Amino acid sequence: xxxxxxxxxxxxxxxxxxxxxxxxxxxxxxxxxxxxxxxxxxxxxxxxxxxxxxxxxxxxxxxxxxxxxxxxxxxxxxxxxxxxxxxxxxxxx
Length: 93
What we know:
The chain is an alpha+beta fold. It has helices at about 70-80, 85-90; strands at about 15-20, 25-30, 35-40, 45-55, 60-65.
């Protein structure tokens, strides 16, 4: 599926600043892919499982003068990743 796509374009590790407030920016980032397993009911009543990749999610505050590039985010994630939001832990195993 990714045969003609270069390695850099295949990366799921990205960051963006989404909100600015009095000298800080809220950064949202994705990391390595996680696995999701979902149980769902078929029309005939059977329950089946589906599994596949899902984006990991992070959010954290940065000083507005220190907005991260994707490369800086990849380095931060590899060396000192922030905690994931509490609500993410409600469905992670």
